[in-house]
Structures are given as structure tokens and as C-alpha cells.
Design brief:
The complex is a heterotrimer. The longest helix of chain A has 18 residues, at 167-184. Helices cover 36% and strands 27% of the residues of chain A. Chain A has 11 helices and 14 strands. In chain A, a hairpin with a 2-residue loop joins strand 1 and strand 2. Chain A is an alpha/beta fold. In chain A, strands 6-7-8-3-9-10 form a 6-stranded mixed β-sheet, with helices on both faces. A 4-stranded antiparallel β-sheet of chain A has the order 2-1-4-5. In chain A, strands 12-13-11-14 form a 4-stranded antiparallel β-sheet. By secondary structure, chain B is mainly alpha-helical. Chain B has one domain. Helix content of chain B is 71%, strand content 4%. Chain B has 13 helices and 4 strands. Chain B has helices at residues 2-14, 17-47, 52-68, 74-92, 102-113, 117-126, 128-136, 139-142, 149-183, 213-241, 245-265, 283-287, 298-322, and strands at 191-194, 197-199, 202-204, 209-212. Chain B has a two-stranded antiparallel ribbon with strand order 1-4. A two-stranded antiparallel ribbon of chain B has the order 2-3. In chain B, helix 6 (117-126) packs antiparallel against helix 9. The longest helix of chain B has 35 residues, at 149-183. Chain B is globular. Chain C is elongated, with a radius of gyration of 26 Å. Chain C is α/β, with parallel strands linked by helices. Chain C contains 11 helices and 5 strands, in the order αβααβααβααβαβααα. Chain C has 2 domains: 1-29; 56-266, Rossmann fold (3-Layer(aba) Sandwich), CATH 3.40.50.1110. Chain C has helices spanning 2-32, 65-68, 77-89, 106-112, 116-124, 134-138, 149-173, 194-213, 224-228, 231-234, 244-266; strands at 56-63, 93-98, 127-131, 178-182, 218-221. The chains are: A alpha/beta, B mainly alpha, C alpha/beta. Chains in contact: A-B, B-C. At the B-C interface, helix 1, helix 3, helix 4, helix 9 and strand 4 of B face helix 1, strand 2 and helix 5 of C. Chain B: Keywords: Membrane, Transmembrane, Transmembrane helix.
Chain lengths: 304, 326, 267
Amino acid sequence: MSQVPALEVDNLTKKIKGKQIIKGVSFTLVPGEVFGFLGPNGAGKTTTIRMIVGLISPTSGTIKIGGKNVRTEFTEAMRHLGCIVENPELYPYLTGWENLEHFAKMDRSIPRSRLDEVVTLVGLTNRIHDRVSTYSLGMRQRLGIAQALLGKPKVLILDEPTNGLDPAGIREMREFIRQLAREENLSVLVSSHLLSEIQLMCDRVAIISKGAVLRTDSVQNLLAEQERVIWKAEPLPLAKQLLSEETDVTEGADGTLITLYNEPLLPDWNAKLVKRGVRVKEMRTQLPSLEDLFLEVTGGESID
Amino acid sequence: MINLVRNEMLKLLRKKRLYVIILIIAFLVPLFTYAQFKEIQEQREKLGNQDWRTVLQQEITDTQNRLSSSRIQDEWRKYLKIRLSQQQYYLENDIDPRAPGAPTFMRIFVENSIDLLLPLLVMVIVADLVSSEASGGTIKLLLTRPVKRWRILLSKYLAMLLSVSFIVLSVAVLSYGISGVVFGYGGWNMPLLTGFTVSGDELLTDHVHIVPQWQYILMEFGLVWYVCMIVGTLTFMLSVLLRSTAAVMGIMLASLIAGAILANMVASWESAKYFFMVNLNLTNYVSGMATPIEGMSLGFSMSVLAVWGIAGFIIAFVTFSKRDIY
Amino acid sequence: MKKYTLTIVSIVSIAATLLWLFGLGWTLQDQFSATKKMEQPKVKTESSTAKKQEGTLTIFALGDSLTRGTGDADGKGYTGYLTDRLKDKTNQDINLLNTAIKGETSRGLLKQLQQSEIQRQTKQADVIVMTIGGNDLFQQGAALESLDMNAINGKKQIYLNNVKKIYSQLRELNKDAVIYHVGLYNPFSNMPDASTTSSIVRDWNFQSAETAAGYENIVYVPTFDLFQLQVENYLYTDQFHPNTEGYKLIAERVASLINFEQEEKKS
């Protein structure tokens, strides 16, 4: 961690018409890391991302990309950044190639050979000279990534990158992002409202709600804390009584019991139940839903 | 910067709007050519005399007769008087202000389209220059490049300037080329009078001098270009301020048409002369027509337009570089 | 091809920008530099000398509202009906030029005659018809109310003086054309003071005819008798100008004279 962070966000705030939308967001991305930005719609993910990419000016706080301040050294900072904010909206009346050429011309440091590289990278070689209006959503998404990678950025920002993609497309995208981080030492900031997506893609996650970051941690740590075990057993009241001697128990909706996941103790709990004549029918772990995680992290505060 | 402007020109061309504009002009010019041709023909038939002097004399007599009527409005009387002295001047100096020919048609066409038609065409091109990027979402990609915002807007402004020049050029070329089929292509050297100044209801001829028609046309096109640039700049500003291209067009259309109406009825509302839309008819000053409001002159109108243009330019650039994009 | 379009359009646009900027600059220089002086056109576009059109009879009409045709429902006036009549009688093409102005006085006409175009048309004319003097005398009907003989005599002298100059000027410009000066009628001949007004108009006509007689080929055409009886049937609603019937009467009278003249010339 001695090197310069790829992206540094420090105490970022935004006030719109007297209303505090973003309340002091801070986080840091190290090179080669995929960082998830998790929160429900309306939590402030997109506003934060737009401040990072320079579309919205923050009320206070600093953003540094590759050590360059977005406010004072806009051009230098942007040179290290590639992004797709929300949908990859490209010029539909131009061909894919013309779109890329258009954006490449805006940065003198991009050599022409780079265009061929990114087109091959995202696998659009066959259709690149067709108009974008004829592209499918997946192809537009790929073209969007191609344009984001044009300037060989240090930081790639993707806002809801799997929105509207089919399952195969989502998996492809996920692998592609991990590959980029691994092979090009790229830091990727991914925002999403889907936990499963973040979980599979990211090294670390920031949970954001109502304009503030609630937790920043590795995915493993966050989830491990919240992982649960679902029990199906007969008779239910006895099972509940026995388990509650060991840990906290809540009753599930369809005749199940829910306890925390505690790997070393789980076999003992099970043995105890069996010993006392409870028939354990099912025992499975469950990852918490985003809602659960939120309820947990925010202490009962609802998402909206 | 050249690359940025090139980008903007590419988008402009690919949107095909320039072609549409050219098509519109190519469609309208034959229409007006035919109308003009009919008018000339009818005049010849009516008078049975091909001498333009007789026609002009007849017009003068008609004007004089109208002036002698007591029911005539004061404003109209003033206008007629100015026209009269001008016609007389042409006659005395043996200059036919309407000798048929493609250059003459060009001149008449451009004089008649400076206050509405050309601004409308310019508006169609400029209206979506910025607003389409905002409504299409591409502005997000455009503004996250390592290029400062004002440079991006300036490149768009320059593209606007180039396309305005292109439109004006198309008008010149098409009106010359098409009308020449009917009227012939000669007449560039015909002498024309300019430099009339209006003071009160008198036409001052102190500065009147003769210029060949080609110079006269070049001067008028210069003014047309100026007017188009101002209209373009204001449309550009609206395009920055509003996301919806339709709203930009609506506002511009309303103010341009309001200007055309106002110019005919504001004679007694003096401060209306500070509106940009009543000042669009710059070529009238060159040809010495009466002004809609007392106290307007070429210098005045150009300054009013310049003030509006500069204000629009500043507003556009300040808003664009400060604005948050959602 | 697509690539070239962009380059060509850009280059053309840049060139056009420069051209229009130059035009604009020239306008500013041209319109705002006060030192410019009117230079006379070096070459006249066309010689402005008279060119008579062969085979057509050109009638040149000048004067006041009577010649203009005020009061005629068709707006033709006696000149129009005269032309119609002559067209019926002869096979010649007739070209009518009417430069009459409503409310024209003898002084105004004299001034109009100084205009080069009027002079040029005078030269081209085969026949000249005119009405003048009505406004000198009546001033739209207002002057006769007072019946101040002194004032009327003063006006008459000025008028006769002007008419002499008009005659001379016309003759100077065109030696051959016969000039028909259509005389005055009394629009008030059914009014209380009819005897007085009629005598004034008669005297006015007499003096005019006397003046006309001093020139060659100037015919003073009387109309007093046409309107003497039943004047109300021949007047327009303003009780001053003739109506269509009145104009037809005048046209008929002038037409008969012109025919006569033409035949005389032939023989």
C-alpha cells in the first residue's frame, strides 16, 4: 500500500438546494483491485460516481485519480480514467469505429493502433464498421467498455455494468472485469444494487445508504458475519428451545429456524439436537440478502 | 482543437440535417424563381411596354397617388415617401434596380429571407447541437475526456459557425444556379445605389454612392451571415440551457415569428427596438428601406444584435462549464 | 467517399466563413465611412433618348384626379375609355401611359415635368391628354364656397402663368404630338349659387382656351356643356368627380377629336 492509490475519495459531500445528498463519503482504491459500490437505488451511488468522473462538482471534499485532483488538474486526472456512467450511450448514427475514433481524437496521447487493440479486446471486430443503432445491448455495452479502455486508464468506473444483460452476458462481463484487473493492474469501481453480483466480482465493498458509507470491508468478512443457517427439524418447538440454549434463534416463515452461521460449533449443535430426538431434515447455509445486510448494518433502518 | 471541431463536423454531417437544409433551399428557390418570373411577365403584359423606366415611373405615380389619399396612416406614408424618393433617385440616375438576372434574384431572395427563412434554417441545424448530447446521454462520455469543458463547447460553437457559413453559401450558390436557368447568369456589374440614410421621414442621399451588384451582393451576404450567426448563437445558448431540442426550436421559432410580426406593428412602442428579433432586417439599411421604429440604423441594429450575441455566448459558456450533469 | 465529404464540407465552410467575414467587413467600411461621395455613373446603362415604338399609338396622360380616374367604378377614367374606344375604331396597338396624380395642381404638374423620365415619355408620345386646373380653382370644392372674386382672380393668374409654362415645356419636348387639354365642368351647377359658379368656370375655361390657342396643335376640349344639365347623373358620390357615365362622356368627346386628327394626317 506504499504506492499511490489509484482512486482516493476523501470526505466528499454534495448539497443540492439545501439538501445534503452525499454526506462525507471516503474510500480508496488500490491498483489491481475491483471495488464494489453497493447500495439500493437512490442511495447516492450514481451521484458519487458522477462527482468522481467530473460531471457534478462536489460541494466539498477531494477526489484524486492517480494522485491528480479532479477539480484542479481535471485534464490529467481524466487521462487516468475510463468510465461508463449508467447506460453506454453512444452516437447511434455513427459506426462503432467512428464512435471510438471520435473519443480517441479527444486525447492526443492515444495512438491509432490502440483502436484495433480495444476492438479485439472486447471482441467486436466483425461488427465494428456497422452503425451503433443496429447493435444489441450487449454489443453496446462492449463498445462502451472499449471506449472506456481507449486511454489505457488506471481506474475504470462502471455504473451498473450488467444492467439489461442476459445471464451469459453477465458472466462474460464479470470474467472480463476480473481479467482486466488481474492482467492490466487496473482498479475497477463497480456500482450495483445486486449483492450477488458484487460478491462474485469484487475484492472489497463499500455499502452506501442515504448518502453515507456505512461499512467498507472485504466481501468475505462482510458476508461471513451475516451468513445464516436454516434449519428444518421436527418437532419444531423442541428444536428451537435446544438451539436457543446455544445461540440466537429466530423463526422463519415456513416452519424453519434461523441461526447464525458458526462453522466450528455447527456440528455440536446438530449432535445435540439428534441426541435429544429431534429429527433434523435439512440444514443449509444462506447468504443474507442485501436487505438483511442492510437491516443489520444500519441497525433496522429500512432501505428507503 | 482541430480534432474536436472535426468530430463535431462529423456528427453534424452524419445527422444529415445539413442535407435536409440544402434540400429545403433547393426546393424553395425554384418556387421563388417561378414567382418572380411570373411577376415580371405579368408586368410586361399589363404595360405592353418592356421599358423598365416606364414600369418604374408607373410605380412612382401609383405611390404618389396613394400618398395623396388622406386616409393613409402616418407610418405608411413615411415609408411610401422614402420609397418614392429612392425610386426617383434610381430613375434619375438611369439605374434599373430590378433588372432581371440571377444576381438580382439572389439579392432579392436574400433580402426577403434574412429575417425569417434563413434564421429558421440555421435554427434547425443549431437547435440540437448541445441538447441532443444531453438528451441522448452522450454528454457523459464527452465530458469525461481529458478535455476541458469550455474547449468542448468552443468546438461545438466553431462547428456551428462553419455550418452557418455553409448554409449561407448554399443559399448563394443554389439561388444563383437555379434562378440563372430562367433569368440568365449575367448582371454582376449592374450598378446599384446604397448608403441611403433615413432621418425622420426624409431620405438623406448625402452618402449615396454606386456599387456594382457583385459587391452589393457580397455586402448583403456578409450581413446575412452576421444575422445568422447571432440567431445561431442564441439558439446555441438555448441548446445549452435546455435538454429538449423541441423546446429550443419552439422558443426560437416563437421569437423569430414574433419578431416578424412585431416589426410590422411596433412603430409606436419605441423600446421594442432593443429586441433582437426586430433588428434582423439588416439588408434594409443597405437598400435604404424605412425602419420599423424611429431611430434605428445599421449601426444601432448591429450593436443590438452584437449585445444579444455576446450575452448568449457568455451565458452558454458559463452555464456549460459550471453545470452539474445528471 | 464519406471521409472526403467531411473534408470537403469543412474546407468549403472555412472558405465561406472568410468570404462572408470579408463581405461583412466591406459593408461596415462602405456604410460607415462618411467620406464617400456620390459619383455619377460613368456609363449610362441605356441611352435614355426617346425611341418611338413603330406601329403603336402612344397616349401619354398627365394631370390630376380626372385623368387618374377617381370616381370611376372600374378605375379606368376617361383615359381608359378613350383607349378602349380607339382600339375599337382603329386596328392600331394603343399604349397608354398614365402619370396623373390625384390633387395635382398646375404648379405640381410643372414640377413633375422636370423629371427626366416624364420628359422622356413626353418625347415618345403620339398623343398627349391632360387635365389640370381643377385643383387650382376648386381646391376639393372648398374655395368656391366663399366666392371671393379677388382670390379667384389671383389663383387664375397663377394658373394661367403655369399653364403657359406647361404648354411650352411640352411643346419643347415634343413638337408633333397633339395635346388635348380637357377643360373644366361645373360640379356645382345644381347648387344654389349655380349662376355664379358657372360663370367663374366658364371664364376659367375661356381664358385657358385662349392660352391654348397661342400654341400649335393644342386643343382645349370643352366639357362644360356635357355636365351642364343633369349634372347629378354624371357625378360620383363625392359630388365632385365624374362617375363612370361622366367619364365615358369625356372619353367620347376626346375620342372623336383624335380620330379626326388621325384622318387629317393621313389625307
